[in-house]
Q: What sequence folds into this?
């Protein structure tokens, strides 16, 4: 393995239940690595372990060669791991710009300098503007986040992730609840982000996954049953029977 | 310390711990199932003590009947209180619950003052429970304290049976983990809450009634016991009755033996214990890890 | 299940407009400064009392309104500040500034210890733990030889520093006013700063802040310690003003009352804390005066309890929330 983020034999047990069982994968810059699976397959637990919210029971996670398995979430974020959530976790009472600026502020030096106003912080302001630009939300930057449409909120969720200028993007169902046009916009955004980021995409929308991913890992009941390029996955007999069933995937 | 004294202190510790358990179990049930933090829980303890004071002349030696009557009265009061007041608290955030129940304490304190005055009262121990028996021929231990422990154990067992082996208990446990599902199953969740709340009040009142002959009846008795109750719930873990039992006994021992060895600073013991638990397991000994 | 997420409608952007926020507090400051020359006796005492409580309430606003940490044990730092002021004063009284520093330092230290442990918990646990640690401090001053027992202790001589002698009522007034201005100004700066923005983010969604890279524990602890130090300042002023401290200053009634002031005035707004201190003090005065409520004055606990319940139930956003609603309707 040589990827920016490497996962070796990651396992997570909750009492007697094995939620994630010996999962290994790799994230490379320039690639979208999608993880698909039915509900309860362990995808959320996996992404939580990668972002640092839950500690694994076993296994290792490496970022650019360094072992980050024990590193707390905040530290991982500063190291370049960005995460978006399945349930929208933006700050509804702040403006879209303030959402991104605050996220970007995490890396600002001298947080204790209380005599300087937050709005005067050039660094975080610029990062916020760049993130909003990248996600196409510049025109909505002054809107209070809680008043945005669902699609815009999901985009803001990704923008907040980008504001911290990560190298690795862990995206948890960014397309959830989106219509066709919004999905198209998000996929175009992901294509634009690909060249400079390593992306892990957990998704249910199969069309989107097969369109955008370079690699697909399929999970069932916590274990990986197949991993490979979209073509290989589409024709893998195990995947067909276990997950895709009789679905036509032409 | 010789063996006899040690045994006596152990018995005292267990008795105190079990009494705390009655209080803490009610508090943790109410919080675990309805999500309400209730500062007025100590007032129910006080209610029990004053009930004992009021009922004792009427019942004389029929102590058990008095306890039962008191519990029923407290349960009815609790049922009504939930209906009229607490049911409006469920949708509110913890800060509002804290402040509204704080207001309730003030109301209860004043009502108590208006109805029964501010004097300190005693409640006589019934004749058949008075006196002591000898421990190994060396020390005397009061029958009443033994009775107190026994009564608490009976309640603890009854609580266990109800929560784990009855339909009501099943609904309670289900309601604790998934409110909406219980509602979907057609169980009247509002009535369930009312029953649980009434039970919590009854348990607290019972603790007060049992404690009354030992500790006398006075204003503000609810306040000090409430905070110790909170410490017990923090140590044991919110929502866990077993945790409440373990923590109550722990606190009972730390407090009782603390008084023997450290006299003045004994009161600090339980806070030190709490601090240690916070360092080691912040969610409580048997609490669910968030 | 309820959470302790507090919903406060404040957009950081709005607060940064100097015009909107600065003139009212400055006006009040000037008015109070002038009033100091005119007021005597009971009215002057009342204003000083309210100003000190305003400092106390402001210190809690930092925790509750700005960071979302509901502490039910804030009286502890208030009391520690007060007691240290008295205990550190020698026979001949102490230097005003030295004692002030000691008081605030001691309060901050206790807040550091309690915060370090309490912040390992969340939600209801946090509320109960902060209450418990305050009770522990109460116990130390009430039951051990350190505090002089339930009767409290007296100051021999009030603190002084050159011409600033707290034995002089006028000096007390202006020292308290200066402390209030300092506290308000400091918190206003914090609210607009990066630190304050981070606290606001933690209040709204702590998980999200961690995901962005903030070490939220550190921020919360810093807020807790600063709040403790400012509460200690209020305690110091009470000790210097009255020349007397007693353990009831650390009781949970005080913790409950200061929490009430914050929610009564309006959470998240600095003006709210001051307004809450004013409103609550006046409410207590009114309810205990026969001229206003007749025979009910003797049962002020009952009326106060009912008033609290009604206020919290009907005005969860406090008086400031009420004013905002009126403005929106127009």
A:
């Amino acid at each position: 393995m040589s990827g920016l983020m490497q996962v070796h034999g990651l396992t997570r047990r909750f009492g007697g239940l094995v939620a994630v069982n010996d999962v290994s994968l790799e994230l490379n810059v320039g690639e979208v690595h999608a993880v698909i699976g039915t509900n309860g397959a362990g995808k959320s637990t996996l992404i939580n372990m990668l972002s640092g919210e839950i500690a694994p029971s076993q296994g290792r996670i490496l970022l650019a060669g360094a072992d980050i398995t024990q590193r707390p979430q905040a530290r991982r974020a500063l190291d370049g791991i960005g995460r978006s959530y399945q349930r929208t976790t933006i700050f509804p009472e702040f403006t879209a710009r303030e959402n991104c600026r605050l996220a970007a502020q995490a890396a600002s030096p001298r947080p204790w300098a209380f005599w300087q106003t937050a709005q005067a912080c050039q660094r975080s302001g610029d990062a916020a503007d760049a993130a909003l630009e990248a996600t196409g939300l510049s025109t909505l930057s002054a809107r209070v986040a809680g008043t945005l449409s669902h699609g815009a909120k999901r985009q803001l969720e990704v923008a907040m992730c980008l504001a911290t200028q990560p190298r690795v993007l862990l995206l948890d169902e960014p397309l959830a609840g989106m219509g066709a046009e919004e999905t198209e916009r998000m996929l175009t955004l992901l294509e634009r982000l690909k060249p400079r980021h390593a992306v892990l995409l957990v998704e249910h929308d199969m069309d989107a996954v097969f369109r955008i991913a370079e690699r697909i890992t399929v999970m069932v009941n916590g274990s990986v049953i197949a991993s490979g390029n979209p073509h290989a996955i589409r024709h893998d007999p195990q995947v067909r029977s276990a997950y895709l069933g009789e679905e036509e995937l032409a | 310390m010789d063996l006899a004294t040690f045994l006596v202190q152990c018995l005292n510790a267990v008795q105190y711990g079990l009494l705390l358990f009655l209080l803490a179990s009610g508090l943790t049930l109410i919080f675990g199932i309805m999500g309400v933090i209730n500062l007025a829980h100590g007032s129910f303890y006080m209610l029990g003590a004053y009930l004992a004071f009021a009922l004792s002349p009427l019942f004389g030696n029929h102590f058990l009947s008095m306890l039962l009557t008191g519990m029923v009265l407290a349960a009815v009061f609790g049922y009504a209180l939930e209906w009229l007041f607490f049911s409006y608290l469920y949708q509110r955030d913890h800060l509002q619950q804290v402040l509204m129940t704080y207001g309730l304490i003030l109301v209860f304190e004043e009502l108590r003052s208006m109805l029964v005055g501010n004097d300190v009262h005693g409640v006589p121990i019934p004749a058949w429970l008075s006196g002591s028996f000898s421990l190994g021929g060396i020390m005397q231990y009061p029958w009443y304290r033994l009775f107190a422990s026994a009564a608490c154990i009976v309640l603890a067992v009854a609580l266990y049976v109800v929560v784990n082996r009855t339909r009501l208990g099943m609904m309670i446990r289900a309601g604790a983990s998934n409110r909406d599902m219980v509602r979907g199953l057609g169980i009247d969740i509002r009535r369930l809450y009312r029953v649980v709340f009434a039970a919590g009040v009854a348990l607290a009142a019972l603790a007060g009634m049992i404690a009354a002959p030992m500790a006398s009846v006075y204003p503000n008795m609810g306040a000090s016991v409430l905070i110790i109750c909170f410490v017990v719930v923090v140590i044991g873990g919110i929502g866990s009755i077993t945790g409440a039992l373990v923590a109550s006994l722990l606190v009972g021992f730390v407090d009782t033996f603390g008084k023997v060895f450290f006299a003045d600073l004994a009161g600090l013991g339980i806070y030190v214990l709490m601090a240690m638990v916070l360092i080691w397991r912040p969610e409580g000994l048997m609490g669910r890890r968030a | 299940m309820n959470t302790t997420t507090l919903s406060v409608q404040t957009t950081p952007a709005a607060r940064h407009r100097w015009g909107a926020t600065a003139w009212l507090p400055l006006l009040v400051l000037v008015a109070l400064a002038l009033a100091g020359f005119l007021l005597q006796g009971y009215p002057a005492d009342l204003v000083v009392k309210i100003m000190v409580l305003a400092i106390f309430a402001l210190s809690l606003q930092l925790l509750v309104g700005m960071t979302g940490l509901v502490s039910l044990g804030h009286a502890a730092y208030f009391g520690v500040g007060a007691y240290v002021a008295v205990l550190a004063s020698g026979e001949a009284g102490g230097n005003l500034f030295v004692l002030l520093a000691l008081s605030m330092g001691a309060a901050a230290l206790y807040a550091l210890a309690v915060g370090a442990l309490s912040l390992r918990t969340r939600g209801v646990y946090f509320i109960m733990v902060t209450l418990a640690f305050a009770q522990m401090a109460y116990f130390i001053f009430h039951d051990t030889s350190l505090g002089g027992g339930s009767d409290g202790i007296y100051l021999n001589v009030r603190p002084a520093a050159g011409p600033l002698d707290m034995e002089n009522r006028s000096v007390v007034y202006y020292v308290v006013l200066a402390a209030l201005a300092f506290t308000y100004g400091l918190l206003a700066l914090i609210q607009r700063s990066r630190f304050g923005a981070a606290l606001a983010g933690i209040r709204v969604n702590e998980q999200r802040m961690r995901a962005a890279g903030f070490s939220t524990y550190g921020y919360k602890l810093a807020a807790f310690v600063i709040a403790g130090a400012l509460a200690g300042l209020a305690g110091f002023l009470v000790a210097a003003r009255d020349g007397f401290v007693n353990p009831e200053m650390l009781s949970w009634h005080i913790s409950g009352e200061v929490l009430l002031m914050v929610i009564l005035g309006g959470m998240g707004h600095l003006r709210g804390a001051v307004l809450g201190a004013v409103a609550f003090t006046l409410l207590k005065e009114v309810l205990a005066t026969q001229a206003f409520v007749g025979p009910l004055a003797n049962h002020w606990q009952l009326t106060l309890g009912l008033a609290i319940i009604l206020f919290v139930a009907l005005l969860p956003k406090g008086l400031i929330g009420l004013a905002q609603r009126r403005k929106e309707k127009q």
